[in-house]
Design goal:
This protein is mainly α. Helix content is about 75%, strand content about 0%. The protein has one domain. The protein starts with a helix and ends in a 12-residue tail after the last helix.
Length: about 130
């Protein structure tokens, strides 16, 4: 296994562990993010669990298919995710969600960067193999 593939799988493994935490402990995640008492809200827990499920699916795909194309698309998904929460992270009218959204944006950007670096490094499996 190439160093690039090991790096890609390491990032996918961290993402997998993060998704398990999001799915198993949404209340603790909300409490840790100080989401203004929202840890008891079924809606807030649901959002955390949906994010956990998305990360779980993405982790499995990245682990099984660590090609440049898949990792590039995965980094794009993380960038869109971060951008979609940026408004909530900066909006005054959603002050109770600001810290949780900011942490969400930072987490998505960290995964985006780590995944993009492994894709750009060009040491992962090629997107398609040439036949002799």
């Amino acid at each position: 296994m190439s160093p690039g593939m090991r790096a890609a799988r390491a990032v996918a493994t961290v993402r997998l562990l993060w998704s398990v935490v999001l799915l198993a402990e949404p209340r603790r995640i909300l409490r840790a993010a100080r989401a203004s008492g929202e840890d008891s809200s079924a809606r807030a827990r649901g959002v955390v669990m949906v994010l956990g499920a998305r990360n779980l699916v993405q982790a499995v795909v990245e682990f099984l298919h660590p090609s440049r194309m898949v990792l590039g698309l995965a980094a794009g998904v993380d960038a869109v995710h971060a951008a979609s929460f940026l408004g909530l992270a900066t909006a005054e009218r959603h002050a109770r969600w600001r810290r949780a959204a900011q942490l969400n944006v930072l987490t998505a950007l960290a995964f985006c960067a780590a995944t993009a670096i492994t894709a750009i490094a060009g040491t992962t499996t090629p997107d398609r193999q040439e036949t002799p």
